[in-house]
Input
Amino acid sequence: MTAAVVGCSAPTPPAPTSSPAPTSVVDACPASGTTLSVGEVEGASGLRAAGIFLTNCDTRPHTVEGFPAVRVLDESGAPMDVLTGNGSEPVSSPDAFDAPARPITLAPGERATARVLWRSQVTSATAPVLRGRYLEVAPAPGAPSARLEPRGGIDLGTTGRIAVNAWRR
Output
């Protein structure tokens, strides 16, 4: 016997895995000594979250502190007019991820995690619906960045804002 589900919207993205697929190997470790990658997008009731991972691919320890610098880019790679806030507050209620920023020293092979939040919500009939394709992420403001592509994109609706939590072990 088979069953069919009719009238449903797009399926909810799968929960993030504890380890994203590797985006680089130690032999290809950049001069910064770290690599950046993005996990699966979690989606529930319009609230979206994606993990950002900073991995120490070097042979020496690296310290990271504060919040990653994150920008939303469109299909062509151009920055979008999106407000980025530190902490969950611009998008959601504060939660366990809103711990204070502290220095984290990563031994070779260790990684730190931050989280990007946004809402897929249309709040205006006249504002354009925003849909980004990439996240440009740097471990800290002014540091070299990487262009990451979350599966499913960044569907902001008309909210025009994202939130970023501090790095944590």
User: Anything to note?
Assistant: The chain has one domain: 29-164. Residues 1-26 have pLDDT under 50 and may be disordered. The longest strand covers residues 34-44. The chain has no helices and twelve strands.
